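Lab notebook, bench 4. Still working through the backlog of constructs that have no structural model yet. Next entry is a single chain of 111 residues. Request: give me the structure tokens for it.
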Amino acid sequence: MALPKQYRLKKRKDFDLVFKKGKAFRGSILFVKAVSNNLPYARFAPVVSLKVAKKAVDRNVLRRLLSSVSERYKDRLKGLDIVVMVTHPEALLHKKEVEKEYEGLLKNISK
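Model written out:
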């Protein structure tokens, strides 16, 4: 199931704000930036580049995986805009590791 629209980060200006003023969290496969958004809910944006996954099908699989984890954490991370980027091309081969690493990074953000 897709992340509801309310919880998605879509506008260019919001992305720019996250990248300029956001706090960074790095894992071996993922890179996460988060910034306060002054809203009563969190917004997420999974980013998978062509360098990481050449096929659109593969990029979409990774985006869906990240969105499902975001869905579980959306109530714990109120008031944040979060951009998560896949940085390692082997992410498709290690989906469980990606999921665990993302959950760990989200727990660090919520502290």
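Notes after review: The radius of gyration is 13 Å. The chain has three helices and four strands. Flag for follow-up if needed.
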